[in-house]
Amino acid sequence: MNRVVLIGRLTKDPELRFTPGTGKAVASFILAVDRRFSSNGQKEADFIPIVVWNKQAEATANYVTKGKLIGVAGRIQTRSYEAQDGTRRYVTEVVADEVQFLQWGDGPQRSGQYNQDNQQWRDEEITPIDDGDIPF
Fold first, then answer.
1. Among 14, 49, 107, 124, fewest CB within 10 Å belongs to which?
2. What span, in angstroms and rounded, lies between the C-alpha atoms of 5 and 94?
3. Are the CB atoms for 91 and 81 separated by under 8 Å?
4. Is 45 a member of any domain?
5. Which residues are CB-neighbours of 67 under 8 A, at least 6 positions away?
6. Given a cut of 80, is residue 6 above it in pLDDT?
7. 129 pLDDT higher than 60
8. Tens of pLDDT, residues 27-42
């Protein structure tokens, strides 16, 4: 089984490209994921490269920007390529099949999700809760 679920913040705006020939959309970005425990009281994070394909890539590039909180689910993939200087480079990245926008722009908070399997976009409103009505 190869499945990973991450929640983190984008380190920069997603980069949207289209593959030559087929024209498939592909977005890539780095997700900063906080570590659960930190050494010496300093907060630490891991920086995970994420790749998203097709309409989900376009939605991600259009609706989220640097610093926004998102969740991704997908699989870990490793690949290698030959760099221009002739050396072999190895890359480990997450290929996301599901992206959830946990924080939108400066307007009201919303939650949205594009499911690659169902090929549909789901947009949900978040209703604020009044803590004054809770009896405990």
1. 107
2. 9
3. yes
4. yes
5. 9, 10
6. yes
7. no
8. 999 999 998 876 777 8
How is residue 44 written in tokens? 């630490």
CATH number at residue 45: 2.40.50.140
Q: Considering just the CA atoms, what is the radius of gyration of the chain in Å?
A: 18
* pTM attached to this predicted model: 0.72
The single-letter code of the amino acid at 121 is W
Give the count of domains, the chain. Answer: 1
Residue 136 lies in a domain: no
Buried b (16+ CB within 10 A) or exposed e, 79-88: eeeeeeeeee
Paired with 8 in beta bridges are 70
Q: Decide if 102 is inside a domain.
A: yes
Residue 87 belongs to domain spanning? 4-127
